[in-house]
Amino acid sequence: MPFDYAPAPESRSIVDIESNYGLFIGGSFSEPTSGEFFKTINPATEEVLSEVAEAGQADVDAAVAAARRAYDKTWSKMSGKDRAKYIFRIARLIQERSRELAVLETLDNGKPIRESRDADLPLVAAHFFYHAGWADKLEFAGYGPDPKSLGVAAQVIPWNFPLLMLAWKVAPALACGNTVVLKPAETTPLTALAFADICQQAGLPPGVVNIITGAGETGRMLVEHPDVDKVAFTGSTEVGKAIQRAVAGTKKKLSLELGGKAANIVFDDAPIDQAIEGIVNGIYFNQGHVCCAGSRLLLQESFADEALASLKRRLTTLRLGDPLDKNTDIGAINSSTQLSKIEELTASGEAEGAERWSPTCAIPDTGFWFPPTVFTNVTQAHRIAREEIFGPVLSVLTFRTPEEAVAKANNTPFGLSAGIWTEKGSRILWMANQMRAGIVWANTFNRFDPTSPFGGFKESGFGREGGVQGLGAYLNVEDPS
Ligand code: NDP
Known about the structure:
It is built from 15 helices and 18 strands. The protein has helices at about 55-75, 80-95, 100-110, 115-135, 160-175, 190-200, 215-225, 235-245, 270-285, 305-315, 335-350, 385, 400-410, 425-435, 465-470, and strands at about 20, 25, 30, 35-40, 50-55, 150-155, 180-185, 210, 230-235, 255, 265, 295-300, 355, 375, 395-400, 415-420, 440, 460. The protein has a seven-stranded mixed β-sheet with strand order 13-14-15-12-11-16-17, with helices on both faces. A six-stranded mixed β-sheet has the order 8-7-6-9-10-18, with helices on both faces. It starts with 19 loop residues before the first strand and ends in a 10-residue tail after the last helix. About 55% of the residues are buried. It binds NADPH dihydro-nicotinamide-adenine-dinucleotide phosphate.
């Protein structure tokens, strides 16, 4: 049983949410031409937080035109050193406002404040600092003596790490000399709108960053806009494929960061306590709304029972509840749609013969919640072993030899990440070479750093974000990945 903590809620008074938000186009907020607004809610309470503008075709046209003007007249003509000053300024403002942004992210997304405060926000600032450092050094990045920007970047991001995905996209685009039109996800627009305010505060020239809110249709209009030079998308494989079809035959440069079904492979010589923490972090961090989540646990058969017993013991200590409480480990599921998807897939797991287990935990009466869940008796044919659940649900399989672990780990249409837990360095290197995954963690999981490239193979997409490799996605050069 968890220790009986006293509640320690973070105050939300630091956040000032307006009753409605317009579109951030050309450096200022404007009403949508449609006059339509949609609600964004707190998924932990279902409270309406604000109403947000729905951008239509005329608004998308205006945003792309503003980005084009800013590119032609200002940003592409500015020296890297001057661009860096703006990006450094943005990074510092994010640090200064990080508590406010963390609370806002938790309210709109449902993730625990512990994660938005200690993981998302430090990484957001780090991405801007890192890329600000590149802006005046692009000739040393390995892309030739004078690499050129692309022009206007259309960027569409998901709801699982709203501000972090914005940072992964906006920071390299600006550092490389491009201007941006970004569409955040329908359920999590508020931190992107706060970022618009930060752009104003930083004195960023009007039109360099434009934020348009709306649903999937707004995203479609943006990526299909003929005056866009670059499309960057993070989200589902299904929408990624639709975008790839729409962009095919145009001159637009494309990067896609899509789903995953990562194997977290634990050998019987692994340090068990660290491995259990790594398994928990791998799948229950951010309610499992993580594209690189370690959603398939591969346990070496010789110690599977012992490892499962430790894992279950650890899961009984996780605290599910108010995301603003600093003790909370598992927050709210981001939307009722996502909750239904998790419920449907977990029901299929039981129907197909897998065994479900969750610790006893009280589920709040309002909002969207799903307890941490473990499935055993899972076969590779089960849907819960093949499809991305995007929730706090772990499917456990076993293996006997390293070869069998590799075969099972690679038996997926995805190829984003993998984890290996063993004390043998040679085995780590051998396994990492066999993994068909863009990122392989050894004796750790879910470690992110702006200097390290992130991206996938196969149906997990292509192109890299972060590191020197990620710059190539925003320069007029051959994509390095
Ligand atoms: P989507 O792929 O639909 O959403 C990602 C972003 O794309 C959102 O901003 C969305 O807008 C936008 N979008 C939707 N349709 C289009 C389109 N035709 N053209 C351009 N942009 C579009 O993901 P969902 O939110 O629907 O989640 C569904 C599943 O996708 C999840 O259950 C999960 O399995 C997976 N997923 C994977 C992510 C990852 O990081 N790999 C991230 C998010 C989801 P809007 O939000 O308004 O619909």
